Amino acid sequence: EEAKEPPRIQRLSESVVNRIAAGEVIQRPVSAVKELVENSLDAHSTSINLLVKDGGLKLIQVSDDGHGIRLEDLPILCERHTTSKLSAFEDLQSIKSMGFRGEALASMTYVAHVTVTTITKGQLHGYRVSYRDGLMENEPRPCAAVKGTQIMVENLFYNMAARRKTLQNASDDYSKIVDLISRKVGLYRPRTRTYILQSSKPHCNVNHGATRADVHTVATSSRLDAIRSVYGISVARNLMKIEASDNNPATSIFEMQGYMSNANYASKKITMVLFINDRLVECSALKRAIEIVYAATLPKASKPFIYISIVLPPENVDVNVHPTKREVSLLNQEVIIEKIQSVIESRLRSSNETRTYQEQA
Ligand code: ADP
Ligand code: MG
């Protein structure tokens, strides 16, 4: 058989490139919600309302009372790599905002219909404009608006048939959204109020009306209050405070604070809420390490509830390793994990001994 001629290499068109990239940033409805709510938090909102239809596939609408967007910025708002949060690469080291890539809104316009309504301080009226594939579909139109920004994302993945098909189970994403909001806003910014409304729940026609929210995070004062309001009394009652730190440049520099479940807590699955430098992130290595400690220390195989906030020098965290910014990587990760593991273990042992003693008494 004769060798085939090599196929020609072509440059992909910009719109194909953008749609592929968009599908990575916005993987499912909950990823759009995450980006929108992060933007609302970055805009210093104190109240966020979320409306979801059909698990987010039909509609995701986020309204906030943040600083709004300037009229003159609307033309480039949804282009790729346009942001108000970063200008030089070096800024990444000290970045406090959750966004910085200027990709989220752009991505949404490549896989959905996006409409923005916004008003800035001191203006008599706001502006509304719709976007498609990064660009404005029309000139911004003056409209009535209250403080802040409302972003409407309709018909998510309308142009990605395969993605829509894999996302048939709308209630699945709705619970992911509820969980995200509880953690992200309820725990991270306990002073922000949120309401989530889902109209027309999948598979049933109950209409909740506009006044009842499925999830409602209230402004609370302490972390423990926030945990109690999000996860309930029975969780909060069984938590112990933990702390760990290291300040040795040769091994690791970090400070950790949090809550861990005691020996009385019973659950079939692990709940881990992890903040690193105020970002809600995942760290599968740490999660596994903690699970192992609980399994080895407690007689009954109860999975833990863990809330941990780790602060370390910004230059020791790379926030730029994952397109959704979900996983971060840490300098000296193994050392940090080991330290946390041993603090949890000794705390757990002493709580388990007290419990055994109480049971015998
Ligand atoms: P990033 O958050 O990475 O900057 P986005 O695409 O999410 O990128 O948003 C682009 C820009 O749009 C933001 O930098 C911000 O200036 C503005 N923006 C987006 N959402 C809001 C909002 N809810 N309120 C005020 N400004 C917003
Ligand atoms: Mg953003």
UniProtKB/TrEMBL annotation:
**Superkingdom classification of source:** Eukaryota
Q: Where in the cell is it found?
A: Nucleus
| Signal peptide extent | none
Domain DNA mismatch repair protein S5, which positions?
227-349
Q: Which family does it belong to?
A: Belongs to the DNA mismatch repair MutL/HexB family.
Q: What is this protein called?
A: DNA mismatch repair protein S5 domain-containing protein
What range of the full-length protein does this chain span?
16 to 376 of 794
